[in-house]
What does this fold into?
Amino acid sequence: MQIYYIDQATDFFKEFIKLRNFTAEEYVVLIGKYPKFWDSVRKETEKVKYRKAEIEEDWIFTKAYCPVLKGPMFVLPSVVCEPEGL
It folds into this structure.
Protein backbone atom coordinates (compact mmCIF):
# COMPACT_ATOMS: atom_id res chain seq x y z
CA MET A 1 0.00 0.00 0.00
CA GLN A 2 2.74 2.43 0.95
CA ILE A 3 4.90 1.94 -2.13
CA TYR A 4 2.25 1.38 -4.79
CA TYR A 5 -0.42 3.80 -3.58
CA ILE A 6 0.53 6.32 -0.92
CA ASP A 7 4.06 7.05 -2.19
CA GLN A 8 2.62 7.70 -5.66
CA ALA A 9 -0.24 9.90 -4.44
CA THR A 10 -0.60 13.59 -5.24
CA ASP A 11 0.86 16.09 -2.80
CA PHE A 12 -2.66 17.04 -1.75
CA PHE A 13 -3.59 13.44 -0.98
CA LYS A 14 -0.34 12.93 0.92
CA GLU A 15 -1.22 16.00 2.99
CA PHE A 16 -4.71 14.57 3.62
CA ILE A 17 -3.18 11.31 4.84
CA LYS A 18 -0.77 13.25 7.04
CA LEU A 19 -3.55 15.39 8.54
CA ARG A 20 -5.64 12.30 9.25
CA ASN A 21 -2.61 10.48 10.66
CA PHE A 22 -3.29 7.50 8.40
CA THR A 23 -0.66 4.85 7.96
CA ALA A 24 -0.52 2.35 5.13
CA GLU A 25 -1.49 -0.37 7.58
CA GLU A 26 -4.56 1.56 8.77
CA TYR A 27 -5.60 2.19 5.17
CA VAL A 28 -5.44 -1.54 4.45
CA VAL A 29 -7.56 -2.25 7.55
CA LEU A 30 -10.16 0.34 6.50
CA ILE A 31 -10.37 -1.07 2.98
CA GLY A 32 -10.79 -4.57 4.40
CA LYS A 33 -13.37 -3.42 6.92
CA TYR A 34 -15.53 -1.52 4.40
CA PRO A 35 -14.96 -3.14 0.98
CA LYS A 36 -18.31 -2.12 -0.52
CA PHE A 37 -17.69 1.52 0.41
CA TRP A 38 -14.20 1.56 -1.11
CA ASP A 39 -15.42 -0.23 -4.23
CA SER A 40 -18.11 2.43 -4.71
CA VAL A 41 -15.60 5.24 -4.09
CA ARG A 42 -13.23 3.79 -6.65
CA LYS A 43 -15.95 3.55 -9.30
CA GLU A 44 -16.96 7.17 -8.73
CA THR A 45 -13.33 8.33 -8.63
CA GLU A 46 -12.72 6.81 -12.02
CA LYS A 47 -15.64 8.82 -13.42
CA VAL A 48 -14.30 12.19 -12.21
CA LYS A 49 -11.89 12.62 -15.10
CA TYR A 50 -14.83 12.41 -17.51
CA ARG A 51 -16.92 14.90 -15.50
CA LYS A 52 -14.38 17.72 -15.19
CA ALA A 53 -16.44 20.12 -17.33
CA GLU A 54 -19.57 19.42 -15.27
CA ILE A 55 -17.70 19.97 -11.99
CA GLU A 56 -16.19 23.23 -13.25
CA GLU A 57 -19.61 24.42 -14.48
CA ASP A 58 -21.15 23.69 -11.07
CA TRP A 59 -18.33 25.55 -9.36
CA ILE A 60 -18.79 28.62 -11.59
CA PHE A 61 -22.54 28.58 -10.90
CA THR A 62 -21.99 28.31 -7.14
CA LYS A 63 -19.35 31.03 -7.11
CA ALA A 64 -21.71 33.39 -8.98
CA TYR A 65 -24.18 33.21 -6.09
CA CYS A 66 -21.56 33.44 -3.37
CA PRO A 67 -18.53 35.34 -4.72
CA VAL A 68 -16.71 35.36 -1.37
CA LEU A 69 -16.76 31.58 -1.25
CA LYS A 70 -13.33 30.02 -1.23
CA GLY A 71 -13.29 26.81 -3.20
CA PRO A 72 -12.98 23.59 -1.31
CA MET A 73 -10.31 21.08 -2.07
CA PHE A 74 -12.02 17.81 -2.88
CA VAL A 75 -9.94 14.87 -1.76
CA LEU A 76 -10.90 11.51 -3.11
CA PRO A 77 -8.94 8.34 -2.60
CA SER A 78 -6.86 8.79 -5.73
CA VAL A 79 -7.86 12.20 -7.09
CA VAL A 80 -7.66 15.75 -5.85
CA CYS A 81 -9.72 18.46 -7.52
CA GLU A 82 -8.88 22.02 -6.58
CA PRO A 83 -11.21 24.70 -7.96
CA GLU A 84 -9.59 27.66 -9.64
CA GLY A 85 -8.70 30.53 -7.35
CA LEU A 86 -7.35 28.64 -4.37
Remarks:
- The radius of gyration is 15 Å.
- Confidence is low (pLDDT under 50) at residues 75-81.
- The longest helix spans residues 35-48.
- The chain has five helices and two strands.
